Amino acid sequence: MTLYPAYLTDYPNMNSDFPFHLAIHTLPHGFPTHRHDFMEFSFVLEGEGTEIINGVSHPMKPGTFTCVLPYEVHEIHTRPGSTLRLYNCIFGLNIGLGAFSGLGVVERFLDPMDGTTPFTQFQEHDRIYMKALLDRLFEEYKGKDSWRTALLGAGLIEALARFDRHRRTIETAVEKPPQSVRARQVWQVIYYVHKHYADDLKLGELAEKFHFSASHLSELFTRYVGHSFVHVLHEIRIRHAVGLLRSTQMSIADVAFEVGYGSYQTFSRVFKAYKKVTPAAYRNRKEQSDVELNR
């Protein structure tokens, strides 16, 4: 039986209108092998170590910026005697939509023909600039001032753009992971599903659109994601449904339709399978929690 690395499914703010989280992590012992369906970047502040992405390693030291795509298997090893301290940012694939969709930020990183490495090493002035940028972004994230979301989005785009510009300018000698083009093609399909989850998506039609056979695309989902196409689609829909149940007064039937389910019964059955409670019970639990917090 194939064993898959730990699959991380939750992070702070994942069900909000702006699925974004930024923190400073201290890793005296590294971080074990894992994967997830969101994007992630890190920027090393202190310490040294090694990161392995899809079986290919690169060094980590102050100024190392790494961007990990959805479902890439990765792990961090801290050098003995050292402690890694780094910025860690995680955000949903749908964060590139809305006001920032025209910039194509997420699409650029998921380009299947792109051969760039997942990391770069900022030196001197560039390292100082990136740290200052992330410091400002972190302070904005911790606050509640007006225009917070807009400034976070702008800061995220600048950080990713400067990373992408730098790695394309600086030639970094690194072994390319095998089948990277095929894997990135699968991520293009996954991104499409994230963007069009409310549509009547079918595996056969997706396969035709992205020039796969249905059986081959199904096999690639299992190989690179560790789950079937149907599981991934349900997971994305339920995640969005949770956000609507928490943040709106839409009826449960309307929520079901909004996230792509044609019937309340199907939505309720799938929701309970993933969340262990019915949509109504989930909303009631959230409302009761809010009341207790406001007492």
TrEMBL record:
Pfam families: AraC_binding (PF02311), HTH_18 (PF12833). Residues 187-285 form the HTH araC/xylS-type domain. One of its GO terms (molecular function) is sequence-specific DNA binding. Transmembrane segments: none annotated. SUPFAM superfamilies: Homeodomain-like, Regulatory protein AraC. Keywords: DNA-binding, Transcription, Transcription regulation. The keyword Transcription regulation applies. It comes from the Bacteria. InterPro entries: AraC-bd (IPR003313), Homeodomain-like_sf (IPR009057), HTH-like (IPR037923), HTH_AraC (IPR018060), HTH_AraC-typ_CS (IPR018062), RmlC-like_jellyroll (IPR014710), Tscrpt_reg_AraC-type_HTH (IPR020449). This is AraC family transcriptional regulator. It comes from Paenibacillus sp. SYP-B3998.
